[in-house]
Design brief:
The chain is 28% helix and 33% strand. The protein is built from 4 helices and 10 strands.
């Protein structure tokens, strides 16, 4: 089935591009979500107008995402969590300085580890905290490779648009 894309579709094409896809993919996904329209002779003639409309929509959503990113950059979230009282020091082997002899063995140095949490701070927690402050950010937009499991200050990236990435400051403190 021949279609004209109205929005960018991953691994398929850009807005205004004419593509050939399977009938089921078009009927069940692209057309109901208004990601594409049928490529009729009349629409092919007005393709430039369709591309301009799609570009305007994309630009508007990008501008809204940039405005939200500026507002989010000033937001600081604080989470209170229970944490372990003392954490054992981590032993790290430090190589000798270059001026020292080659045969000198590495020296062990104790580095205090960050206190571990009983539980974690997840993207769902961050999304809910933002919602209480009036921001509409879905948990899938919050990019946490793994939940936050240590006390301290963490920078959390938020993907608001394909080209817009905001960064939140999340502080995790010990619950008293």
């Amino acid at each position: 089935m021949k279609l004209i894309l109205m929005q960018k579709v991953e691994r398929l094409g850009e807005p205004g591009q004419q593509v050939e896809v399977a009938d089921g993919y078009a009927r069940n996904f692209l057309l109901p979500k208004q990601l594409a329209v049928l490529a009729t002779p009349g629409r092919l003639r007005s393709l430039s107008q369709l591309t301009a409309q799609a570009k305007n929509r994309e630009d508007r959503s990008k501008q809204e995402a940039q405005a939200l990113a500026e507002r989010l950059s000033t937001v600081q979230l604080t989470f209170m969590r229970r944490a372990a009282e003392e954490t054992p020091a981590e032993v790290v082997m430090v190589a000798p300085a270059e001026a020292a002899t080659e045969a000198a063995p590495p020296t062990p140095v104790a580095v205090p580890a960050a206190p571990k949490l009983f539980g974690s701070v997840t993207s769902q927690d961050v999304s809910e905290a933002l919602a209480t402050r009036g921001f509409s950010v879905e948990k899938r937009q919050i990019i946490l490779e793994e939940p936050i499991k240590t006390l301290g200050v963490h920078n959390v990236p938020v993907r608001l648009h394909t080209d817009v990435l905001a960064e939140l400051t999340v502080t995790v403190e010990r619950e008293v």
